[in-house]
Amino acid sequence: MCGIIACVGTDDAVDTVLTGLNNLEYRGYDSAGIAVQNGRELVVRKQAGQVSELTGSFVESLPESTTGIGHTRWSTHGPPTDDNAHPHTSRSGDVAVVHNGVISNYGPLREELEELGYEFTSDTDTEVIPHLVDRYLDEGLDADVAFRRAIERLEGSYAIAMMIEGENLIRAARQGSPLVVGLHDDAHYLASDVPAFLEFTDRVIYLEDGDLVTVDADSLSITDLDGEPVERELDTVDWNPEETGKGGYDHYMLKEIESQPEALANTIRGRIDPEEPAVILEEFPAGSFEGITDVHLVACGTSYHAALYGARLLDEAGLRVRTTRASEYTSIVPDPEHTLVVAVTQSGETADTLGALRAARETGARTLALTNVVGSTAAREADDALYIRAGPEIGVAATKTFSSQVATLTLLVERIRQDAETATEREDLAAFLRALDVLPDQIEEVIRISRAQALSSAYEGRESYFFIGHRLLHPVALEGALKFKEITYEHAEGFASGELKHGPLALVTPGTPVFALFDGVHDEKTRTNATEARARGAEIIAIAASERDVDAFADELLMIPDTHPDLSGLLSNVQLQLVSYYTARLLERPIDKPRNLAKSVTVE
């Protein structure tokens, strides 16, 4: 939700900020803008549209500078227009601000400032910030105090970066929205996410709520709202800058689909011993989950579907489990002493999931963040963190992170089984871990043999698309439908196989494509309902490891390698991702930038 980039001390601030904005465009692409200064003048350029449109004379008119801020917007307050684009400035033009988040009390602040004669030119909540700073500067306060006073007045969530004319430095603040500092020998960077500046430095400091930052080319200062110094740990990011580029692909989504074998191999590397057999999670030594009888999983979107997958495994392991969309989570924990609350979030910054995590902590329940980003808010605030190790994901539609989330959840379930007294042992653990060990190679095979491109052409232009699956394939059907609607804009729904005849079958008309998922063991409900749908004119696309199991009723077959039934969903999911991708490409959709969506939803 919106991307911020700032730099100070670079040779060319314009080029650096534009590079950062391009790297962050997955966070928002309704409008974009840049402000730079060279110690003499502060110049702002902004407009509705995508970062790629900030070219030519638009940026050539900017002065040479070493200090700049930039923003790519995902609209919350006000439509995507030139006036609503960031940066926003004070009435004097001496203060420029970019902001990610929501200022919940901007209404009364705006009324107060308008009574003092400040004129607003946008519909955004952000514009109150530069006017507040300008007000306190007019009262004679120095810039540090004026900034602090303005931040003290704000309620809600924010990551803010600010420049004042005549100063080659940047002030920033964080509360509830991500902000990270990048450190180089002779320059500093600020951004919403590491990929913004990863090609310039891999040394980072993850800011925490309440932090205020001042950076120039040579120094960095972090304080709290009272001005007291704060120490934050310096980390080194182990992502390769090449991972955040397209690498010759037309779209990030296809690159990330095809990078799933590598991502999944990283997820499981060093965490399983198929010969022992054992799951080895260094984060959780023996006894870590003693006393746990209940597990709550909270998540949003694709992460919620991964959580549903993990919940089914937990249920079959004999634990009491509750899976809730994070925005609907209620902190009613009957037995917090024996409850583990797992927040599943790719970015570790999803606002609804962080809210659920904090609500769970208040009950006294133990919390665990299952996330992709080291140093993220969820990882810092939870009692424990378990990383999915998928590497950076730029495409808005999550692909490789879903596979890695599910794989990590399967490992977590097996690890909890080792300690929880109420849990049952997995009788086929050796076979399961052997199947997990070769899963990256099997996903690579799916990508190589997939007929998804040809099939997408055959079924283009249908009115609706349905996805059905039973047991662990139900959340995969839901995820397949979500991917399809996210990037094709076509109507798609996912259902539990047995539910198709309890209402949704009324939507099936001749020619309706129904994607039916099979694991080779728990297939009867899916087979029965696919047959009933076909009898009403539906065309059945089966995803299965054996043609003979579906030949009697399937019109098309997308093959997957034979694997353990608890893992077949990850292979089926890759086929569905490819179907969505190629259908969207046929329809000429903006695959990496689907309308109205952003990668990381950091506002509620």
Describe the structure using short key phrases.
globular; alpha/beta; 32% helix; 8-stranded antiparallel sheet; single chain; 604 residues
Kindly describe this structure:
This protein has 604 residues and is α/β, with parallel strands linked by helices. It has 16 helices and 26 strands. The strands form 5 sheets. It has an 8-stranded antiparallel sheet, covered by helices on one side. The longest helix is centred in the C-terminal third of the chain and has 21 residues, at 429-449.
Kindly summarize this structure in a few lines.
The chain is an alpha/beta fold and 604 residues long.
Outline the fold blueprint.
Elements: E1 3-8, H1 13-24, E2 31-37, E3 42-48, H2 57-60, E4 67-73, E5 88-89, E6 95-103, H3 106-115, H4 128-138, H5 143-153, E7 156-164, E8 170-175, E9 180-184, E10 187-191, E11 203-206, E12 212-215, E13 220-223, E14 235-236, H6 252-258, H7 260-268, E15 272-273, E16 278-279, E17 294-299, H8 301-316, E18 320-325, E19 339-345, H9 351-363, E20 366-371, H10 377-381, E21 384-387, H11 400-419, H12 429-449, H13 452-458, E22 465-469, H14 473-488, E23 492-496, E24 513-517, H15 524-535, E25 539-544, E26 556-559, H16 568-586
Parallel strand pairs: 17-18, 17-19, 19-20, 20-21, 22-23, 22-24, 24-25, 25-26
Antiparallel strand pairs: 1-4, 1-10, 2-3, 2-4, 5-6, 6-7, 7-8, 8-12, 9-10, 9-11, 11-14, 12-13, 15-16
